Amino acid sequence: MQMDDMILVSIDDHSIEPPTMYEHHVPARLRDVAPKVVRTPEGIDQWVFQGEATSTPFGMAATVGWPAEEWGRDPGTYSELRPGCFDLQARLDDMDANGVLASMCFPSMAGYNARTFAEAPDKQLSLTMLQAYNDWHVDEWCAGSNGRLIPLGMVPMWGADLAADEVRRLARKGCKAISFLEAPHAQGYPSLLSGYWDPMLQACVDEGTVLCLHIGGGMSLIQLPPEAPADHSIVVPTQVMVLVAQDLLFSHIFKKFPTLKVAFSEAGIGWMPFYLERVDRHVQNQKWMPNDFGGKLPSEVFREHVLGCFISDPIGLKMRHEIGIDIIAWECDYPHTDTTWPESPEVVWGELTAASVPDDEVHKITWQNACRFFGFDPFTQIKQEDATVGALRARAAAKHIDTTRMSKHEWRRRNEAAGIGVIAG
Which residues contact 252 (CB under 8 A, 6 or more apart)? Predict the structure, then answer.
């Protein structure tokens, strides 16, 4: 196999939702109270819902296409972004240029756990707008992708029964994955161990829905020094997933829900061999403790339920058999600062080659494991021979897709001249 023969399916990317997302998904009588983008007097585009500014969907979340010197946390405008952040056709073109066949996109303006809606006072209006968000994501963003975007919904965090209902509603729409807080107790919700979320977990099992736990929401579980630099908030979150794995394994969850599937999104895989070795030794050594894994080791239970996900993880790939070759998947993380776009094939191929990964295992890691886990057929609209890195990049070249990095100021000049991403002041 050569690099151009790979097939890439990314199970962790992000949409920067377009300002028009609610136009076709809420009744006319509610359009005035739907979330909307406004331009502040300071010239910043900001989402507003129920009278409160909820997020500025830029900064580190949408730096793709900018030179690295301009990356940071500063808010900005839609017109400063590479259009693939928020425009569907431009996103598909950028996937072609990167040789990526399919992608799963986590939310931005709502937060991974729908916090925009959970923190607003009018919960009935919040539920309506959360469902409208999901409708936009499934019926417009994904449905318009010609089978290349894997649907991922959100659930209301203010009620387990409401969350279960939304899991079932999404499943009827063909969406079999939800984004959820990796450690809900870190943000004041009942923990995964508490039993509170059992109705939602039962709905996931009934519908075959994957629980996707994205890093980032559990940072409060770690007491950082007050002098901690911003680097901590980028490096440390992957390690929080060790605490999440512990919660899942040493609780009722996998015993009570033996077919539950959980994806660890953007958590990396290099930590897994040590953790799995440690919990196995713990259970074998601490026989006095009342742990019951059904005659299995904790590592075996972990491999039955969990899918790991990495952007770049040379050590994890070298230790792939200690992890489990069938529970490793790949991601691109477009359009965040961690993304490898537009050199993703070069990066992952270099790591796979350095780890001497054979062809059959390459396919498992780059697309087969993810597609099996999420029940996604990547070849419904495209032949397999046309889905490779080489074939997709050839299509992008024929369309003259430009991957040149440009200053946000140059993006703004070009986009505003073309009427792209322009928000009235």
Answer: 193, 195
CATH number at residue 155: 3.20.20.140
DSSP letters spanning 172-217: HTT--EEEEESSGGGGTSPPTTSSTTHHHHHHHHHHT-EEEEETTT
Domain that holds residue 290: 7-33+88-406
* CA 36 remoteness from chain centre: 23
Query: Would residue 256 count as lying in a domain?
Result: yes
Are 48 and 38 in contact by the 8 Å Cβ rule? The answer is yes
For the sheet containing 36-39, what is the strand order? Answer: 36-39, 45-49, 52-55
Which ranges of 226-271 would DSSP assign to H, the alpha helix? 231-235, 237-249, 253-256
Would 363 be classed as within a structural domain? yes
Residue 330 lies in a domain: yes
- What residue type is 306 in one-letter code? V
Within 8 A by CB and 6+ apart from 400, the residues are none
Residue 153 counted as domain residue: yes
> Cα separation of 150 and 103, whole Å?
6
279 HSE (CA, 13 A, CB side): 23
132-191: per-residue pLDDT in tens? Answer: 999 999 999 999 999 999 999 999 999 999 999 999 999 999 999 999 999 999 999 999
CA distance 392 to 399: 11
Does residue 417 contact residue 32 with C-beta atoms inside 8 Å? no
Q: Report how far residue 71's alpha carbon sits from residue 61's, in angstroms, rounded to the nearest whole number.
A: 10
pLDDT of residue 55: 64
Mutual angle of helices 298-305 and 272-285, in 10-degree steps? 140
Q: Is 280 exposed, middle or buried (0-12, 13-18, 19+ CB in 10 A)?
A: middle
Q: How many domains does the chain have?
A: 1
State the Cα–Cα distance between residues 11 and 332, nearest whole angstrom. Answer: 8
For the chain, first and last CA: distance in Å? 53
Share of the chain above pLDDT 90, in %: 85
